[in-house]
Design goal:
- By secondary structure, the chain is mainly α.
- The chain folds into two domains: about 50 residues, Arc Repressor Mutant, subunit A; about 150 residues, Tetracycline Repressor, domain 2 (Orthogonal Bundle), CATH 1.10.357.
- The longest helix has about 30 residues.
């Protein structure tokens, strides 16, 4: 047996040491986990199912993530951060901040399976930290004092997260109604509001087209500008 092993070593054939599976990576696992959560919900996400989808043994996942909680933390960190730090750049600090939070909102809405984690976690991962640092530096260019800068960023986070949750709820209702067009959905909403008894709801009837526009890009930007208008 020893001689046989020696012959194999001389021939250049070495036993493979256990390690990370070729082709598997932390990012690949993260992407697959996000896909499962978005399509089937967080309850459907198990490390065994994730391993099956990646065609690897469950132990291969544990070489990258110690447990499911660690995986969920990184999924949340990815979704609640800027997907591209440089894409939001602008010579105008106001525009740069708006670009950043518009990108965060879109990232949140694009991953509806992760939104339930918003009630259980707060973004403190590396990606979220980098995103927050970028926005704070942008706000510094406005000339505001430190406390105002920190509090403004907190207000922007709360506004963006709340808007994303509301937008996801509206998209879910659209799916249930079988309506793909945002314009059609808003038109139906405006029509429904306008049909209310005017004597009981005069303002809702009057403002129906604008209220129905509640989760549009235009409305999101309006809110951002409103929060930032006193800082220009």
């Amino acid at each position: 047996m020893a001689k046989h092993q020696q012959r194999k070593e001389k021939a250049g054939v070495q036993r493979k040491k256990p390690g990370r599976r070729p082709g598997l990576s932390r990012n690949k696992i993260l992407a697959m986990a996000l896909g499962i959560a978005n399509e089937q919900g967080l309850d459907a996400l198990t490390l065994r199912r994730l391993a099956n989808q990646l065609n690897v043994a469950p132990m291969a996942i544990y070489r990258y993530f110690g447990n499911k909680e660690e995986l969920l933390n990184e999924m949340f960190d990815y979704v609640s951060s800027l997907p591209d730090l440089e894409a939001c750049s602008s010579e105008n600090w106001h525009e740069e901040v708006c670009n950043a939070y518009a990108a965060v909102r879109e990232n949140l809405v694009s991953h509806p399976g992760i939104l339930p984690l918003l009630t259980q976690r707060y973004g403190v991962g590396e990606m979220t930290q980098r995103s927050t640092e970028r926005v704070l530096q942008s706000l510094k260019r406005s000339g505001m004092h430190d406390e105002a800068r920190a509090r403004t960023n907190c207000a922007l986070i709360a506004y963006t997260v709340g808007f994303a949750v509301l937008q996801s709820a509206v998209r879910h209702q659209q799916e249930l109604a079988g309506i793909d067009s945002d314009e059609e959905w808003r038109a139906l909403g405006a029509e429904r509001l306008a049909s209310l008894p005017a004597e009981d709801y005069p303002e809702r009837v009057k403002l129906a087209p604008y209220i129905a526009d509640i989760v549009s890009d235009k409305q999101f930007r309006f809110g951002l500008d409103l929060l930032l208008k006193n800082l220009d």
